[in-house]
């Protein structure tokens, strides 16, 4: 029985998603009832966190085994001696997996309450403490040091500074307040830092606040797969077209042993600064970050580059990652999405503009990886079908490592093409309810198999540019 309700969507958005997951090809293969069950299961899974926390080790500065030892010591302190395993992924040598315990059902709710925003609530379910800006309301008698129950306002209806809230809210666990209600809502100054330190979260996940900075990067499992699929080599010139906050760009640089050039673009200045900060923190010098709109990164004339930054000459990169802006419908946990159908559908045209730039900038013989953290057919398989018909110079490629499932039917791709895609589908396994006894009895192989399946919704496609964009197709 799920502890949370399924993700709350606008009716037209839910219908749009359902139409995609119950398209004619899928229904003909699975049957209508099975396809509908699978879709409803997906909606339930999206409101729950994945079964594992994933961290990527910065192998440029340290070894995986060293970080594993340090994390085991750290978790002994965080969990008061509770033994929680840290597993190295067999197919991703720089990735460590930490199981999440929960949902824990015997936590006693307190009279004193605080309500946090939905985004803050999602972070708490994945191991974060509550920071002051995330607190929306608190009981009138809340003082620093009080044990309080924390709830998430999943529909955004609670008024800032309210003393109580009877709307839709989801229990996240208990914590100890670091501030009084009066301090939080006085309005005298903008407070930062931890407002509530979670002591009994409903999902017991490790906190990574200031844990081993420079040595690890908190990253969802499929996101860590992407750079491995791109398979960058030392000395190459690689473009990360939509790079913020820099997780994949820094991963690419580490896999290249910081030898070569990684160009990271984003059009929002503070996000570019975040890329630079992460590169500095992780000790990576091969990354050059620029504030630039990726849709304009292609220099249309063939003149020689006179500057190292964008726009770039055609066919000037060995490999390109397009981790495209998307509707983010695969992120977990996500109990409510207020986006309109127009907003959800707005990403496909933008993705195609960016893809067209990437195809022009890639050298013949180069590799292009396209990825999203969403589950829609329109942003994933339909984009692959469009790319193959629009750019005859591109060929779909098999992926290594192969951890996700094959692509979803409905976009007109062949079975062989679908097998070359990776779709991470959170509904692939039943919702988990792991406790300490279950962890003790599980084998490492069982836990890794679960981690591969019970993750965020994600999509990866890999293309080879087998000839120049300017060459004519001899078959036409």
Helix/strand-derived category reads: alpha/beta
Shape: globular
Taking the sheet with the most strands, its summary is: 8 strands, mixed
Tally of helical segments: 15
Q: Estimate the mean pLDDT confidence.
A: 93
Termini, distance in Å?
57 Å
List unreliable stretches of 5+ residues: none
Number of strands: 20
Round the Cα radius of gyration to an integer and report it: 23 Å
- Helicity, as a percent range: 25-40%
How does this structure look, described?
The chain is an alpha/beta fold and 476 residues long. It has 15 helices and 20 strands. Strands 12, 13, 14, 15, 17, 18, 19 and 20 form an eight-stranded mixed sheet that branches. It has a six-stranded mixed sheet with strand order 6-10-9-8-5-7.
Outline the fold blueprint:
Layout: E1 8-9, H1 11-21, H2 24-30, H3 32-46, E2 52-57, H4 64-78, E3 87-88, E4 95-99, E5 113-117, H5 118-124, E6 130-131, E7 135-138, E8 147-153, E9 170-177, H6 181-185, E10 194-201, E11 216-218, H7 221-230, E12 237-240, H8 247-255, E13 261-266, H9 269-281, E14 287-291, E15 317-323, E16 336-337, H10 341-345, H11 347-361, E17 362-372, H12 381-390, E18 394-396, H13 415-419, E19 422-424, H14 436-441, H15 444-453, E20 458-465
Parallel strand pairs: 1-16, 5-8, 12-13, 12-15, 13-14, 15-17
Antiparallel strand pairs: 2-4, 2-11, 3-4, 5-7, 6-10, 8-9, 9-10, 17-20, 18-20, 19-20
């Amino acid at each position: 029985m799920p502890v949370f309700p399924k993700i709350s969507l606008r009716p037209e958005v839910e219908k749009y998603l359902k139409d995609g997951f119950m398209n004619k090809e899928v229904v003909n293969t699975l049957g209508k009832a099975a396809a509908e069950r699978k879709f409803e299961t997906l909606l339930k899974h999206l409101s729950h966190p994945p079964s594992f926390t994933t961290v990527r080790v910065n192998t440029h500065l340290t070894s995986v085994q060293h970080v594993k030892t340090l994390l085991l010591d750290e978790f002994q302190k965080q969990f008061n001696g509770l033994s929680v395993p840290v597993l190295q992924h067999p197919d991703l040598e720089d990735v460590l997996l930490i199981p999440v315990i929960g949902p824990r059902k015997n936590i006693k709710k307190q009279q004193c309450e605080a309500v946090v925003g939905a985004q803050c609530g999602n972070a708490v379910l994945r191991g974060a403490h509550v920071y002051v800006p995330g607190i929306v309301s608190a009981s009138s008698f809340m003082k620093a040091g009080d044990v309080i129950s924390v709830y998430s306002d999943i529909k955004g209806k609670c008024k800032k500074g309210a003393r109580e809230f009877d709307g839709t809210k989801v229990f996240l666990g208990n914590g100890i307040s670091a501030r009084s209600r009066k301090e939080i809502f006085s309005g005298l100054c903008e407070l930062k830092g931890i407002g509530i330190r979670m002591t009994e979260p409903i999902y017991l996940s490790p906190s990574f606040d200031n844990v081993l900075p420079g040595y690890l990067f908190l990253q969802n499992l499929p996101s860590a797969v992407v750079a491995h699929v791109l398979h960058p080599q030392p000395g190459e010139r690689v473009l990360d077209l939509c790079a913020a906050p820099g997780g994949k760009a820094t991963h690419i640089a580490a896999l290249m042993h910081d030898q070569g050039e990684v160009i990271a673009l984003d059009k929002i200045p503070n996000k570019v600064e975040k890329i630079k900060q992460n590169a500095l923190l992780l000790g990576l010098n091969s990354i050059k970050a620029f504030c630039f709109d990726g849709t304009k990164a292609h220099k249309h004339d063939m003149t020689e580059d006179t500057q190292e930054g964008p726009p770039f000459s055609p066919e000037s990169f060995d490999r390109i990652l397009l981790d495209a802006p998307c509707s983010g419908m695969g992120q977990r946990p996500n109990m409510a999405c207020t986006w309109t159908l127009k907003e959800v559908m707005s990403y496909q045209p933008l993705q195609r503009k960016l893809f067209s730039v990437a195809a022009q900038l890639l050298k013949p013989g180069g590799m292009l990886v396209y990825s999203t953290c969403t589950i829609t057919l329109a942003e994933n398989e339909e984009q692959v079908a469009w790319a193959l018909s629009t750019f005859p110079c591109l060929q779909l490629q098999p992926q290594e490592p192969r951890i996700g499932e094959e692509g979803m039917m409905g976009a007109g791709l062949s079975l062989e093409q679908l097998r070359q895609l990776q779709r991470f589908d959170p509904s692939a396994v039943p919702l988990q309810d792991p406790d300490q006894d279950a962890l003790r009895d599980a084998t490492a192989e069982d836990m890794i198999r679960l981690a591969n399946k019970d993750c965020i919704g994600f999509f990866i496609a890999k293309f080879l540019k087998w000839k120049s964009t300017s060459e004519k197709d001899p078959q036409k």
